[in-house]
Amino acid sequence: MSPRRVRAETDAVGRRERPLLITVDGEAVGGNDGQTIAGVMLAAGRIGWRRGASGAARGVFCGIGVCFDCLVTVNAERDVRACRRRARDGDVVTLQSRWPGMPGTAQESGSEDR
Question: Which residue stretches belong to region Disordered (predicted)?
Answer without folding.
Answer: 95-114
